[in-house]
Amino acid sequence: MAVNTEKYKALIKELSEKKVQLVAVSKLQSADGIKAMHDLGQRDFGENYVQELLEKQAALPQDIRWHFIGHLQRNKVKYLAPFVHLIHGVDSLQLLKEINKQGSKQNRVIRCLLQMHIAQEETKFGMNEAELGDTLNAMKAQPEAFTNVLVEGLMGMASFTDNTEKVKAEMQQLKALFDKYSPLSIANCQLSILSMGMSGDYELAIKEGSNMVRIGSLLFGARRG
Ligand SMILES: *Cc1c(COP(=O)(O)O)cnc(C)c1O
């Protein structure tokens, strides 16, 4: 079974009632599975690996909006710049500058989310609040250096644990940052998207204020690899 159609339909209904956007996470899933979900009407798909995304982008319908949700190395931005719809994992000012540079070469404005470090786990990427502040200050101070990016929100990943209280506290920490910084008025930066929640914790994430969820295994089944 490539795609769980019933689950997809139920999820889309639930999310549209709550005005939450779905990014279907298709990393390590087959092109057939993605096509099946495209046939059901899904257009936003999320990938974690640059090479895999490039191959899928070339082979699959051109109306797909590709989200890059993985950790992005600066030297790979140039491959995504021509087509990527939204980069969720911008975790440094240097990376944002590189995205701006490659956006400029493509004559595009590239939409981005700043990834915040909220999990206690060492392995998760993201900025702390001071780095977020530095990034926003840099954009404010030098608007001409950021004309080819549009920072539209924050993204975060809670710890992978059964400890609901811990996950909830991390999500509340991200929501608090979002509420604190979204009223700021900065050129090419308007925080309106909060990308938070995956298969295991999306319901909690929505309760805690997420308006964009990234869901993979719940829809596609287990990943290969
Ligand atoms: C893989 C991944 C997801 C989706 O995870 P599932 O548990 O399969 O829903 C969401 N966000 C990020 C950043 C991921 O890497």
Q: How would you describe this structure to a colleague?
A:
The structure is a single chain. The protein has 225 residues and is α/β, with parallel strands linked by helices. Helix content is 40%, strand content 20%. It has 9 helices and 8 strands. The protein has an 8-stranded parallel beta sheet. Helix 4 links the parallel strand 3 (65-68) and strand 4. The chain is globular. The protein starts with a helix and ends in a 5-residue tail after the last helix. Pyridoxal-5'-phosphate binds at residues 25, 27, 48, 69-70, 157, 198-200, 214-218.
The portion of residues forming beta strands comes to: 15-25%
What is the CA-CA span between the terminal residues? Answer: 17 Å
What would the average pLDDT be, to the nearest integer?
95
The unreliable regions are none
Shape by Cα distribution: globular
- What strand order characterises the main sheet? 7-6-5-4-3-2-1-8
| Backbone CA Rg | 17 Å
Q: What's the total helix number?
A: 9
Helix content: 40-55%
Small molecules in complex? pyridoxal-5'-phosphate
What's the story with the biggest beta sheet?
A: 8 strands, parallel
**How many strand segments?**
8
Global structural class: alpha/beta
H/E element order: HEHEHEHEHEHEHEHEH
Write the layout of secondary structure elements.
Blueprint (H helix, E strand, L loop, with lengths): L4 H13 L3 E5 L5 H9 L4 E4 L2 H10 L5 E4 L8 H4 L5 E5 L2 H13 L4 E7 L12 H13 L7 E8 L7 H18 L7 E7 L6 H6 L4 E4 L1 H4 L5
Parallel strand pairs: 1-2, 1-8, 2-3, 3-4, 4-5, 5-6, 6-7
